[in-house]
Design goal:
This protein is α+β, with helices and mostly antiparallel strands and 181 residues long. Helix content is 43%, strand content 20%.
Length: 181
């Protein structure tokens, strides 16, 4: 009897731990889902579609064209490919958007990827789709280290000029060590 109770307890705990596991989710996304305080909270993710345009074939198709024609052909080819490959998922995502499960939809034709913010319920639905290769977590990343920020404004860093006056060094230039050069 104890053995049976232990097995039931083990299965219950295992199932609850795997409740937020997505087969197509990256390790980072699955970790974010496990620590998500509110299941209704939206996470920024990328949907990478299974069908991808063969870049070697595209290169062969445009290799003999001049620069302007190559650009035009590449744009139209990748856009039409993405529109065709994303037709069904766009319909599903627009429906999920009306239900409040996803928002901030961005259809990226150049790499056949879709950027969005989605709830855990929406991610579980998307995880079942055959046309998706993987779901990637896209957390906000600071461009510059926090050292250069005070609240929402950047910290003003001044260096003395030869004449004794102070001038501000733009923080991006400071990050590249331009003043040292």
């Amino acid at each position: 009897m104890r053995f049976l109770l232990l097995i039931i307890l083990f299965l219950t705990v295992s199932l609850s731990l795997n409740a937020y596991f997505l087969n197509k989710g990256t390790e980072d996304l699955n970790l974010a889902l496990r620590v998500l305080p509110d299941p209704g909270e939206m996470l920024p993710v990328f949907i990478v579609m299974k069908e991808q345009y063969d870049t070697a074939m595209l290169y062969d198709e445009v290799s003999g064209l001049d620069k302007k024609s190559r650009r035009s052909y590449t744009l139209s080819t990748l856009k039409s490919f993405s529109n065709r490959a994303q037709t069904e998922i766009r319909i599903a995502l627009n429906e999920m958007e009306t239900q409040g499960l996803v928002d901030d939809l961005n259809f990226l034709w150049i790499s056949n990827v879709i950027g969005l913010r989605a709830t855990s319920d929406a991610l579980r639905i998307l995880d079942e789709r055959a046309d998706i290769d993987r779901l990637e977590y896209d957390p906000p990343r600071p461009v510059l280290s926090a050292h250069y920020y005070k609240g929402s404004d950047h910290e003003e860093i001044y260096y003395p000029q030869r004449d004794g006056n102070q001038r501000e060094i733009t923080y991006n230039l400071l990050m590249m060590n331009v003043p040292d050069v």
